[in-house]
Amino acid sequence: QGQLVESGGGLVQAGGSLRLSCAATGNIFNINAMGWYRQAPGIRRELVAAFTADGRTDYADSVKGRFTISRDNAKNTGYLQMNSLKPEDTARYYCAAGSAWPRREWDAWGQGTQVTVSS
To answer: Is the peptide bond before 102 cis (omega within 30 degrees of 0)?
Structure first.
């Protein structure tokens, strides 16, 4: 069975950058859509960035101009480049992948990677 594995989280000072990776392994194919979510303690999980199966790229207003989602199809890996990080970006970040999102639910989720931004 396939899975998604995130990496690249860590502790960074405000204004710094991190790049998260989401590697699809095993039997995860036809990744036409990928999304990054985040969840801080006591706060509902929110969509940060995604590219959809029909070719759109969406960002949460709070990260527009600072975060960039991308992917390398040859490596079956997605990325989230995060620049100008703020303390309010502190959260656990999760990736999701699917063949037909948002028309259908995500096919797989990762376990998450922690991002902590100090002031």
So the answer is: yes
Give every CB contact of residue 37 below 8 A, 6+ residues apart in sequence: 45, 46, 47, 48, 93, 94, 95, 96
Buried b (16+ CB within 10 A) or exposed e, 33-60: bbbbbbeeeeeeeeebbbbbbeeeeebe
Do 78 and 101 form a contact (C-beta atoms < 8 A)? Answer: no
pLDDT in single tens digits along all 119 residues of the chain: 678 999 999 999 999 999 999 999 876 667 889 999 999 999 999 999 999 999 899 999 999 999 999 999 888 899 999 999 999 999 999 999 998 999 999 999 999 999 999 99
Helix H segments across the chain?
A: none
